[in-house]
Design goal:
Layout: E1 12-15, E2 29-34, H1 38-50, E3 57-63, E4 67-69, H2 74-77, E5 88-90, H3 91-94, H4 97-100, E6 104-108, E7 110-115, E8 119-125, E9 131-137, E10 140-143, H5 159-175, E11 178-182, H6 186-198, E12 203-207, H7 219-231, E13 235-237, E14 242-246, E15 254-258, E16 263-266, E17 268-271, H8 284-287, E18 311-313, H9 330-350, E19 369-372, E20 378-382, E21 385-389, H10 401-416
Parallel strand pairs: 1-9, 2-3, 2-10, 3-6, 10-18, 11-12, 11-17, 12-13
Antiparallel strand pairs: 4-5, 7-8, 8-9, 14-15, 15-16, 19-20, 20-21
Length: 417
């Protein structure tokens, strides 16, 4: 790394310059993955499975957080904060050559921009709040930076600070008498179910602008979810939103008025909807033409970013139908991307005049969607049908196979020491 001394600002730019390109047949491709959430993580896990059938490559993972958090279980952190320890880990502990079988480097920092010269500019925090701008070159870029999430789904960069945040929120819920949840999507429904299963005597009100909970799902799924929450003691206010919030004397709950004039007391208010804003600001400088007005990434059916030949988008950020972006469908996306990535690598190595025919991502929800309502109930939706689960369903405890493997390995290492 070289550090230019001519830059006057507190942020210095470091250019990570690749060595002179080796002969094409000996090329090691540089893959840069932006985002260590589910999309990026599942992509890396599939790389591990397919590495033997691919040309040589090395990976750089960039994430603004130093840790991975198993987001499927996040709703349970609110009522069982100790559960976080089992469902989070430092990126550097997970992503290593020993675990994945290929060279993988993690960079903790915020992506500032993507350059047309196939480099990613990352702002890496240094001591005393200074930042160092690092340029990371790539042959292929995977964008899996996700959406901006509700308050309790971690945006903090430090694992220690994230754990402290969860404990604060959990203590607030524990002492609260009245709780208001804003948003009746999957996160809102699952959060209400977790709270009521742990604290059945608390007042839980769910405010949703739609006519039924779980917009976009079938009529019977929405009806069943609404009826279940009501039977557990929740108040469900539909076709309305928060109009105003009045703060009363210290120690008294806030007074919330809805758009239909309903007054609700709230010791704690939790927003369970995203703000609709994808984490794609870093594309605006040089790839604005590849973004929709809402900031989603335009992609082809092969999941290539619009007007690019070496950039893919996964997870929440591509401009796909909502049900095509569910967690359960991300494995389909990664399969398509790795297939196409392999073909493009081989195309470059062979210098063929014929472009490969890339695989295409299909429409609709092909994988099942599972929504838990507390630890004992859940709904599974598959191919337009739904099944109601009761017998001790532990959706909140669900982990991906790779994380189970990592957790078992970490526990064995700790016991050895």
């Amino acid at each position: 790394m070289s550090r230019p001394s001519s830059r006057p600002s507190s942020a210095s730019r470091v250019v990570v310059s690749p060595a002179k390109d080796p002969p094409i047949e000996n090329k090691t491709f540089k893959i840069v993955v932006l985002g260590g959430g589910y999309a990026g993580t599942l992509f890396l896990n599939d790389l591990k499975k397919n590495k033997e059938s691919m040309p040589p490559f090395e990976v750089t993972l960039v994430d603004k957080r130093e840790y991975f958090e198993n987001g499927i279980t996040a709703v349970r952190f609110l009522v069982h904060p100790s559960f976080f320890d089992e469902n989070a880990a430092l990126l550097k502990d997970i992503y290593s050559e020993a675990n994945f079988g290929f060279k993988i480097t993690t960079v903790v920092g915020s992506v500032s921009s993507v350059l047309p010269t196939n480099k990613v500019v990352v702002a890496v925090s240094q001591e005393e709040s200074a930042q160092e701008l690092v340029e990371v070159p790539f042959d292929f870029l995977i964008i899996g930076t996700g959406m901006k999430y509700p308050l309790y789904k971690g945006e903090l960069s430090s694992l220690v600070h994230r754990k402290e945040e969860i404990e604060r929120l959990a203590n607030k819920l524990k002492t609260a008498k009245s709780i208001v949840l804003v948003g009746g999507g999957p996160v809102g429904v699952e959060t209400a179910g977790e709270i009521l299963s742990t604290y059945p005597n608390k007042s839980v009100t769910l405010i949703h602008i739609g006519s039924k909970l779980l917009d976009g799902s079938s009529y019977f799924v929405r009806l069943k979810a609404t009826a279940t929450l009501k039977s557990q003691g929740a108040t469900v206010l539909l076709k309305q939103k928060i109009q105003s919030v009045q703060t009363q004397q210290p120690g008294l709950p806030q007074l919330i008025q809805t758009s239909r004039g309903k007054l609700v007391e709230a010791d704690v208010t939790i927003t369970t909807t995203g703000n609709g804003s994808p984490n794609t600001e870093f594309l605006e400088e040089n790839f604005r033409h590849s973004l929709t007005p809402k900031g989603l990434v335009k992609v082809s059916k092969s999941l290539l970013v619009y007007k690019t030949a070496n950039m893919f988008a996964l997870g929440d950020v591509p401009d796909l139908p909502t049900f095509g972006k569910l967690y359960a469908n991300i494995p389909q996306q990664t399969k398509i991307v790795i297939n196409n990535l392999t073909q493009l690598m081989n195309y470059q190595l062979k210098k063929s005049d014929t472009l490969p025919k890339l695989a295409e991502y299909g429409k609709g929800m092909k994988s099942p969607m599972v929504i838990s309502i507390g630890p004992d109930y859940g709904i599974k939706v598959e191919k337009g049908f739904f099944k109601w689960f009761t017998a001790g369903l532990q959706i909140g405890h669900m982990k991906t196979a790779w994380f189970n493997q990592f957790a078992a390995s970490r526990k064995k290492q700790e016991e050895a020491h």
